[in-house]
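User: Predict the structure for this protein chain, please.
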Amino acid sequence: MTTSIHIQSEEQAHLRTTARAFLARHAPAHDVRIWDEAGSYPEQLYREIARLGWYDVVAGSEAVEGTAGLLITLCEEIGRASSDLVALFNLNLSGLRDIHRWGTPEQQETYGAPVLAGDARLSIAVSEPDVGSDAASVATRAEKVGDGWVLNGQKTYCEGAGLPGAVMELVARVGGGGRKRDQLGVFLVPVDHPGVEVRRMPALGRNISGIYEVFLRDVALPATAVLGEPGEGWQILKERLVLERIMISSGFLGSVAAVLDMTVLYANDREQFGKALSSYQGVTLPLAEMFVRLDAARCAVRRSADLFDAGLPCEVESTMAKFLSGQLYAEASALAMQIQGAYGYVRDHALPMHHSDGIIARVVAGPPSVQLDFIARSMGLGIGVNK
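Assistant: Here is the predicted structure, written as structure tokens:
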């Protein structure tokens, strides 16, 4: 119902049809609700995703450039089932791309191959108790000891870090001079490595992936655990975030489409005061506005993907897409809850999951205030302040 016409390649159209059929079989709404309520990880689903080769677009023998257009197609379809499932897909895929882009052949074999086979998972650990959006200020330290490194510190809000076989891309301060951002390194750290402790954090949403805090106590790592070079951590993060924002934005829009679909059905079926809810403009006009915003946000995401695939800068465009899609998911799920009332509040339906996950959609990959500040600076605002 909430489908609008966008030009897509034959490959994208085929992938959308294939993905929708696959998810109907392997991630039906009933199963997704069970995973969300139980806080359980659907390992078999991601094994099947690996078997289909969806990760191969960024890593492995078939990796090619120009894949964002395919990835937003996949993420939107996965998002129709759950934005949390998109988060897990993104963690694996973005991590694989980082390893393929920055890693050595040994790292690609040790850490990438098991994920491509569906036997392992990837997570990322950046935030800390006192560090959120200011990623350059991380306090976790990596000290050079002999030929290796020793890590000490704490990470928080790490999605999927407690899943079996997970490996974290962990950002730590490696020292050196210059700006704070030039003192960061990325380390590949298995969660079962000696000295690593992982604890699940009770959270309102994101129950399938889980949110974790990580404690590092004298974690000894070999030199081969460093992704790229010490000091390249900021560049790795910056590149990663561009594609990550494009992917999760598309996933949010898939969730918005699902929320609007279920609410349109409800409004047509539900009668009050002798008429269907869909006959009242107080119901229909807000839903129509959400549909307009969904279509506009899709255009923003597609533009970002096109720029990315063309090898052109799109940091600002991907930030705008994330701002639009995150806000929209939160507001659309809240509107759906208001329209559906008690029916949408009970956990027999998918809406409570979407409402909880929609709240965090504003914040992941950058909260609105930080994103708008970055966009404002791209416009030239604030550049001359205090000069």
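The chain has a mean pLDDT of 93.
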